[in-house]
Amino acid sequence: MHAGSLSLLPPNGEEARRQCNALERLVLWLGQCEPNAQTCRATTELLNYFDAAVPAVNDRTLEALWQALRPEILSIAKGEQLPAVVSHAQAFVRMARRRLTLPVQWDAPALFAHGSTLRETF
């Protein structure tokens, strides 16, 4: 599979739940501890997942929540401590649990815009 095509795949409901739970645990843990190398790696994996999964559901509210939260999560991935991230993350996780676990309704124009990626994949 072509790496560029991953953002075209619909989020898997079980994987979405797992990633939402991981994000929720991460921000709660950071309220008590400083980031370490393991936290930075896990946070980078969460960034990669949500960067691909959020656009796939074509939900403007979820996208806006992710774009507001993303800089804070990116800072955590870099090893910085951000105590304010908890409330933003909780709002995002609530919405992501609802939207990312539903069947995806594909946006046909968006798929056609990625036609070259689809051809490379198959």
Number of strands: 0
Mean pLDDT: 74
By secondary-structure content and strand pairing, the structural class works out as: mainly alpha
Tell the overall outline.
Answer: globular
Helix-residue proportion: 55-70%
What is the assembly state of the chains in this entry?
Answer: single chain
Order of helices and strands: HHHHHH
Reported for the largest beta sheet, the result is: none
Low-confidence stretches: 1-10, 111-122
Task: Please count the helical segments.
Answer: 6
Percentage of residues in DSSP E strands: under 5%
Spatial separation of the terminal alpha carbons:
8 Å
Radius of gyration: 15 Å
Write a structural description.
The chain is mainly α. Helix content is 70%, strand content 0%. The chain has helices at residues 13-30, 37-56, 60-77, 85-100, 108-113, 115-121. It is globular. The model is unreliable at 1-10 and 111-122 (pLDDT under 50).
TL;DR?
The chain is mostly helical and 122 residues long.
List keywords for this structure.
mainly alpha; globular; 6 helices; disordered N terminus; disordered C terminus; 122 residues; 70% helix
